[in-house]
Amino acid sequence: MTPGHGGPTTAVATLSGAAFGAAAVVLGAGVVAADWPEGWAAVVCALVLTAVGVTVRAAGGRTAPAPSPASDSGAGLGKTTGTASGTAARGRSPLVAAVVAWAVAAVAMLAGGIWAATSGGDEDERNGGGTAKGGPTASAKPTASASLDGRPAVAWTVPAVGQKYDTGVGSWALGSTVAQGRIDGLFAYDAADGSVRWSVPAPTREALCGITPDTEEGIGLVAHGRHDKPCATLLAVRTSDGKVMWQRKLGGKGLVEDALAVGGTTAVTAEDGAVRARSTESGEQRWQRKAPKGCEPLALDADATRTLLVEQCGKGARLLALDTRTGAQRWTRDLPVESPSTASVVSVSPVVVAVDEADARGTHAFLGFDDKGTATVSVPLSGSEGVLSAAGEVGDGRTVRPLVLDGLLITFAEHESMVPDRVVAYSLKDGRKAWVHDDDGQTMALAAEPDGRVAYLGYDASVTLLDPATGKTATVLEPDPAKLPAISVEPELLAVPGGHVVLNRINMRAEPAAYALR
């Protein structure tokens, strides 16, 4: 081989071999091991380095200096041919070795890549098992090692309803039926297949504008009204078949927003400057309480024996407990408020309300009281755990109805982002944090399971079940994301026999009105 041909060939072979070798080493060390090479990564890197060395050796053999004419002057034709053949043989041998070395390295790299992609959990294994041994902590998102009750499928969907930004008013979990308050009426779906069991459509040009938080004795209330008019038509609906038990037209300013409830066989509403109670069966008025001069209702809720009412009176506010059956006042307590406020009743028994006043230095908290109205606890709406979520327009957090379970107030918190990413529980005895559960993404909706566990919907449509006493993960349900309907903002999550139903309250991008995971 002459210098004119050997130089470039040697350079190309050497440079390309070195470049490919360096890239392979980086790939093996960085991608496969993500650290100093170990296991498969170490084997791959060793083979790549060997291949690089053989390639360089082969290139060096091919470009060895050719014999000078002077040294071959006395040689015959046969000897000269023999020398050339020997040189060629010596050149082919290193090249064959290089090809073999690169082939072995390539196979090892492929096998290592497949192993790394399918084995999973390397990080936990390198760190001594992570949560696989001890289970996830109260503040950690569960990993694949957490209990997994299968991979639920989307059992059914209900198409989107209305125009963009149309908003529903709420829902009821009715065992094997789910009732959704949509803009076009109240619709009850069979939880098993999504078929409409019954419906109470809103009249033409009217939209649903109110719904009770739950039902009692098989009856719930809804309300509807016209565009830019008061929410002024009240209906009592029997949940077994959708029969409208009675209907009333409300006067004046109509219904106070979200101020309607059922307690036992009594329907209670705040409307047109008064609190009125009616029979859920007949609609007959049982009692009424006119708002004192200068006062107006902010929020109410009721059970069979107690009705809680929050009133704004001038710059102050107060909480009243009334007898649901008679309207008699049991007790009243001034709230620590000195400016206009928003409020919601979180729980009737035990007594928990959320208050958020206009004064930035005022009261922004969940407040707890005993059965005689004595203040027991205060949990700030914003603190070390983040900005807490409350119902309606209360506070700066996202809208969610907190849970009150076994002496705990449980809600979402915006901790490390502008959206809720944490579930937090506070004791209703002393207001101290009981536990925290962090999520890697966004927590979307909160619900109580029939067995007492706490369920929340994640941004990826996973449903995580938590132990209510500790906040530790009990189960993670992860549907196939490729077959998952879209989730809107402020969805609702309801537990049903054998699964869960997700309700999209706000139509943002034509998301399904509802779908079921089973």
Cα(first) to Cα(last) distance is: 74 Å
Describe the global form. globular
Oligomer: single chain
| Unreliable runs | 1-40, 42-46, 60-92, 110-148
Radius of gyration: 36 Å
The average pLDDT is 80
Q: Helical element count? A: 5
Helix percent band = 10-25%
Q: Estimate the strand proportion.
A: 35-45%
Number of strands: 34
**What composes the largest sheet?**
6 strands, antiparallel
State the secondary-structure class: alpha+beta
Name the descriptors.
single chain; alpha+beta; six-stranded antiparallel sheet; four-stranded antiparallel sheet
How would you describe the overall organization of this protein?
- The chain has 518 residues and is of the alpha+beta class.
- Mean pLDDT is 80; it is low at 1-40, 42-46, 60-92 and 110-148.
- The protein is globular, with a radius of gyration of 36 Å.
- It has helices spanning 3-33, 40-62, 77-119, 122-126, 131-134; strands spanning 154-158, 170-174, 177-182, 185-190, 196-201, 206-211, 219-226, 233-238, 244-249, 255-263, 266-271, 274-279, 285-290, 295-302, 306-313, 316-323, 329-335, 341-347, 351-357, 364-369, 375-380, 382-383, 386-388, 403-405, 408-414, 422-427, 433-438, 443-448, 454-458, 463-466, 473-477, 492-496, 499-503, 514-517.
- The protein has 5 helices and 34 strands.
